[in-house]
Backbone:
């Protein structure tokens, strides 16, 4: 599974179990299910524990890098995008569950649509400003890219010649 899927699942689960109206009942049902299947879950937990133990050297390496504050210069894999991706996708998953909830989702979506309807004038003005800024930046950017391409081609020609 990729980070987006894991994060969306985590966010969805959080919204599902901590829903103010039905979260308590859902948590009770999960506790009952846990009591019935505890032994199997503990066996699986043992396997996960063994997998975590095999990750211990990587965790130590990351800890040393953070303590020395040289992790950014390390040639090893960068974990910052991974964590960021998980956090963003968790929020996305939570928002999906929040707005697509079969019982309360319609009311929540209507509130958001109503809010944006009231703010529509401000949003239109903001969109116009962004479009105007984009047009202002587009021409010089195209010109710069064209000049850079020409310079690269000149270097190639001189390099061959």
Residues:
């Amino acid at each position: 599974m990729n980070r987006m899927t894991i994060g969306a699942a985590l966010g969805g689960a959080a919204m599902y179990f901590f829903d103010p109206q039905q979260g308590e009942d859902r948590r009770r049902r999960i506790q009952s299910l846990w009591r019935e299947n505890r032994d199997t879950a503990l066996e699986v937990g043992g396997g996960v524990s063994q997998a975590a133990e095999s990750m211990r050297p990587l965790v130590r390496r990351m800890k040393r890098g953070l303590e020395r504050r040289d992790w950014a210069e390390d040639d090893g894999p960068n974990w910052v995008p991974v964590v960021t991706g998980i956090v963003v996708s968790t929020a996305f998953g939570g928002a999906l569950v929040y707005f697509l909830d079969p019982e309360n989702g319609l009311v929540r979506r209507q509130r958001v649509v109503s809010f944006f309807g009231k703010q529509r004038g401000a949003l239109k003005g903001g969109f116009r400003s962004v479009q105007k800024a984009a047009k202002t930046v587009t021409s010089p950017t195209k010109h710069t890219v064209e000049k850079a391409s020409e310079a690269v081609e000149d270097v190639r020609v001189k390099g061959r010649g």
Observations:
- The chain is about 85% helix and 0% strand.
- Residues 99 and 105 are 5 Å apart (CA to CA).
- The chain has a mean pLDDT of 76.
- The chain has two domains: 3-117, 119-161.
